[in-house]
Amino acid sequence: MKVPLNWLKDYVDIDISQEELVAHLTAIGHMQDKRPESVSGDTVLDLEVRQNRSDCLSILGIAKEVAAVTGKKVKKPVIKEIQKNQDEKELKILNESPENCFRFSAYKIVGLKADTQTPEWMKKKLEAYGMKTISPVVDITNFVMIETGEPMHAFDCNSVPSGIIKIRQAKKGEQLIVLGDKKITLTEDDLIVVDKNDTPISFSGLIGGATSGIKENSTEIIIEAATYNQAVIRRSSIRHSIRTEASTRHEKFLHTELVGPALDRAANLILEICGGKVVAYHENYAKKSDTLTITLPLTEIKRLGGVEINRATAKKYLSDLDFAIKSEGSDSLEVAVPFERTDILESADLVEEVLRIYGYENIESNLPEFAPPKNITSKYFLLEEDVRDHMLSLGFTEIITEPLTSESQVNKDVAIPLQNALNADKSYLRTSLLGGLSYAYKHAVKHQKEKVNLFELGKIYKKNNNKYEEIRTLGILIHKNEKSVDKLGRKVAGIVKDISENVLHKKITDDCKISVVDEDTVFCEIEINSLPNKKNESNDFFETIPHFTSIDISLSVHEKVNPVEIAKSIISLRNDLYDISYEENTKLAPQGQKYLLLKLVLEDIKETKDEVLKNISAHLTEKFAATVR
Amino acid sequence: MLDINELKKAVEEIGNLETLEKLEIEYLGRNGKVNDLASKIKDIDPKDRKEYGQNLNKIKKEIEEIIQTKKTSLESSQSTTKYINIGDVLPKKISSPHLHPTTITIREIRKYFEYLGYSIYEGPEIETDEYNFNKLNLPKDHPARDLQDTLYISEPEYLLRTHTSSVETRCMTQEKLPIRIIVPGKCYRNESVNASNNAIFYQLEGLVIDKGINMGHLRATLEGFAKFLYGEDIKTRFRCKYYPQVEPGAGMDIECTLCKGKGCAVCKYRGFIEALGAGMVHPQALRNCGIDPALYSGFAFGMGLDRLVMMKFGIKDIRKLYSGELVWKE
User: Fold this and answer.
1) B220 to chain A nearest CA, in Å?
2) For position A230, what pLDDT does the model report?
3) Phi (first) and psi of residue B56, to 5 degrees
4) CB atoms within 10 A of CB A371
5) Are B199 and B189 within 8 A, CB to CB?
6) How far apart are CA A174 and CA A199, in angstroms?
7) Residue A121, φ and ψ in degrees, nearest 5
8) CB count, 10 Å around CB of A245?
9) A430-446 average pLDDT score
10) pTM score
C-alpha cells in the first residue's frame, strides 16, 4: 500500500522523523515493503498491508494506526449530510443475488458542469499514490477509495436507461467488454451489474464496463458503492486474471457500513468540484455485516502475552485504536469493535491489539520452564539418518532432487499427475529416484570426476486404487568404480544387501531390480517401508583369529549354466564359506561348454582341505553336471 | 684383570646407543681398557704370557658379546623409522563423500531444538485441504490463501502441501498434549521459478502446546535459535505480523549483516531480513484440532530453510539446490 506522506498528514499530525514513523508502522504490523520514494514532490512510503487488514488499504486506516501508536488524534474529513430522497423513477437498484451482494447503494447526480478539472490538490495526491488522473468524477471515486478503503464506481446515465441497475449472477458464456477493452467470457459464479435490458455494464467488485463508465462530457451520473461476498470476488479475480485496486479490496472482508460514509464523501466532493445536484438515492441492503462487542478477560493478556498490563493501560491502548469500552467487569472489558476492523473476531485478536501498541519489543524473553514432553521423534526419520550415515561411510555423496518430473520419466500405470502444473517438465510426481540420480551423475562427470557414487533418500509417489502413496526410497547409483558392468552390478548388489541387512534389518528379495543405466553405470533402489523390530543377532566380530583356507576349483560346465546359481548353491551347502567369487571363460572351452574358475575362501574348516574339495566337487558334479578339472 | 660384573651392571643401565658406543670405546677402543691391558703384556713373565693373552682374549670376547647383545636390544626397541617432513611431500587430492547441504543444516538445527526437548515430527507431502488449510484457520476463499499458489493433485481435496504447518494440525489432532516438535520437510508452491524462488523448497516448522505457554516463551525460543544460527551478536527484532494460523501473530527479523541495519539491496533497504514467522496458535486452529483454547495455549513458528542453506554453503542460485547440480569441490 502506497502512503504519500502529505496525504497521510491530512488525517494525522506527524512530528516524528520518517525513520521513526516507518519503525513504528513495522513494529505494529505494517512492514516497509519497498523503500520510500519521492513522487510528485511528496515522499511515498510503501507498506506491506497483510491480508487481514482491509481497513489499512486506506490512508485513513493507516492514519488511525499512526495515531494510536504515537498518541495523536485522527482528523476525519468533514462530510456534509446529503438528502437521501428516493425516487424509483430516477434510480432503482434491483439485487438478484443477495447472498453475494450484501449491500448496493447509489446516488444519481445531474447537472454537472462541463469542462471541470480535477483540482491540483487531488491530482497531486493521486499521482503520488501512483494513480493516473483521468477526469474529475473518476478521480474522485479513486480518491475516496484510497482515502476510505471502500471502492466505488460511477456510470454515465446514458448507459443506465431509466436509472435501473440490476445485480445478478452472470449466465454461462455471457460476455462483457471491460475497461482496457478486454473481453471477458463469464461463468455462473461471476457477479455482474446489468441495465434494465439485462445487458452487462460492469463486473461487480472488479472493473467497470468499457462503455458504461464516465465520459469526458458526462453531465448526469450514478455513483455507487457496494459490499460483496469476498469469496466470489476473489474467485472471479483469479478466474479471469483481473487484479485492480477495487478487487484487491473487495476480495478481503469489508464491512457494509463502510459504504454510507464513503458514498457521501464522494457525493460531497462531486458537488463541490463539478457542481450539479443529487436527485435520487437508492439502495439494497440485503445483509448487514456483524458489528461485534467482545469480552476481553484481562488475564488473557498475561496468559497469552506473558506481560503484565494493567486495566487502565489496556483501556487506553484500545480506545486509542478507536475501540470503545462499553462496560467493565471485575476482570474484563466489554469492547466494541469499530466496524471497519473486520479482522477482530475474538479475545485473542484484542490481546494482539493491546500487545502491539504496548510494543512486542517490550515483551520479556523467558524460555519455558516445563519438562520436555514424551519423545515422539519419528522412528523413520532416525532410520533414514542411519541410512545416510551408512551410505556416507561407504563413500557415497548425497543428492536431493525435485520430486516433480515429466510424463516421459514416470511409470504411467501408477504415476500421480498434477492438475495445475506450471509446465510439462514438472507435471508428474516421480515414481523412481533414477531420473534425478542419472541427471546428477552426468553433471558430476563434467567436473572431471572419474568415479561417481551417489545416493538419494527421498520419496517416490504412486497411486494405489484411490489412495495416494508416498514411499520412502533409497536410490543408489555407481559410475565407473569397477572395470565391467558385471562387477558394477555385483558391487551395487553388495551394497544393497549390506544396507538392507545391517541397517534396515530386512532381507532383499531376489526380484529387486538393478538398472543398467549405461555400460559404466548401474542403479538400484530399495523401499524403506518397515522399521526394524530389534537388532538381529549378528556376528559383528571375530572372537579369535580364524584360520582361512583358500580353494580354487576349475570346472567345465554347460554354457547355459548360471555361475551365480553355482555360487549360491555352494553358499547353501557350506556354513564355513567366508567368500566366493568366480571367473568365466567361454573362449577356450569346447563347443557348448564354458570354463569356470571358482575361488573360495573358507573359515575354520573342520575337515581337511582335500575332504572339502571332494565334498564340493561331488556336489557340483551332481547338481550341475560339472566336470572338475 | 677386569671386573666383568661391573661392566655387565654398567651396560644394563645404559638406555641409548650413544652411551653404549662410549662404553664400547672405553673398553674396546684403541686406547681402551682391553688394549691397555694388552700393551701391558711385555711386563708379564714370558712363561705366563700365553695364559695372559688367552685370558685377555676371552675377556675381550665376553665384553664384545655383552655390548653386542645390548646393542641389538637397543636397536630393536628404538624406532628406526625414517622420517620425512610433510612439507616435502605433494599431498594427493582426496575426494570425500558428502551429505547434502540441507541434510547437514537440518542436523545442525536438530542439535539446538533437541537440547530444548523437542521431538522431530514428520507428515505427508500429499496433503488434504483439511490439514493444509481448513484446520489452520484458512477456510476456502479466504484472502490469506495465496493466489494461485497451490499445486493440486485433485482440486480441492488433494494437494501438495504448501507449508509444513499442515503437520502442526496433524500433530495437534493425533498426539497427546503437551506437544513440543519441529518439522523439517519439502513443500511445494506453484510459483514461477527464478534464482531466488523454486517450486520445491524446504521449510522448518516448530510447535509447542502446553498449559501456560506465552509470547515471552516464544520470543526467547526464537532469539535463542537466531543466536544459534547466526552467532551470539546477532541483532533481532520482534514485531507484530499477521498469519492466519496465529493470534497474536509475530515475526522475528535479523539485522542485515551486510549493511548492519542501514539498508541495502540485499535486505531490500529495510535494514532487517525476515527470518521467522511466528505467533500464538490461533484459538480457532486449536478448536479445529480438538484442543480447548481456554486450557491450553501454544506457539508456532516457521521458516524457509533454503535461504539459510544457501547462506551457509555459499550457493547463489536456489535452483541448484535440488536439481542434482551441486558438485562438491572435494
Assistant:
1) 4
2) 96
3) -60, -45
4) 7
5) yes
6) 10
7) -60, -35
8) 16
9) 94
10) 0.86
Residues A335 and A82 sit within 8 Å (Cβ to Cβ): no
Partners of A379 on chain B (C-beta within 8 Å) are: none
Determine contact: B122 vs chain A, CB below 8 A. Answer: yes
**In this structure, is the dihedral angle defined by the CA atoms of residues A263, A266, A270 and A272, taken in order, positive or negative?**
positive
CB contact under 8 A, A370 and B328: no
Q: Is B152 on the interface with A (CB under 8 A)?
A: yes
CB within 8 Å of A156: residues ≥ 6 apart = A212, A213, A214, A215, A218, A220, A221
What does the pLDDT look like over B136-177, one tens digit per residue?
999 999 998 875 589 999 988 999 999 999 999 999 999 999
Cα–Cα distance, A118 to A113 (Å, whole number): 12
Which residue of A lies nearest to B244 if distances are taken between CA atoms?
A52
Mutation for A interface: B93, B138, B146, B151, most A CBs within 10 A: B151
Distance, in Å, from the CA atom of A123 to the CA atom of B285, rounded to the nearest integer, reads: 46
DSSP labels for A335-392?
EEPPTT-TT--SHHHHHHHHHHHH-GGGSPP----PPP------HHHHHHHHHHHHHH
Indicate the average pLDDT of chain A: 93
Q: Which of A578, A574, A582, A579 is nearest to A557 (CA)?
A: A582
Nine cell digits for residue B125:
507431502
CA distance A263 to A109: 12
Distance CA A73, CA B101 (A): 53
As given in the structure block, the three cell numbers for residue A597 are 574358475
Q: What is the ipTM of this complex?
A: 0.90
**Contact residues on chain A for B213, CB-CB shorter than 8 A:** 368
Q: For residue range A397-407, list pLDDT tens digits in order.
A: 999 999 999 99
- Lookup: cell for A285: 441492503
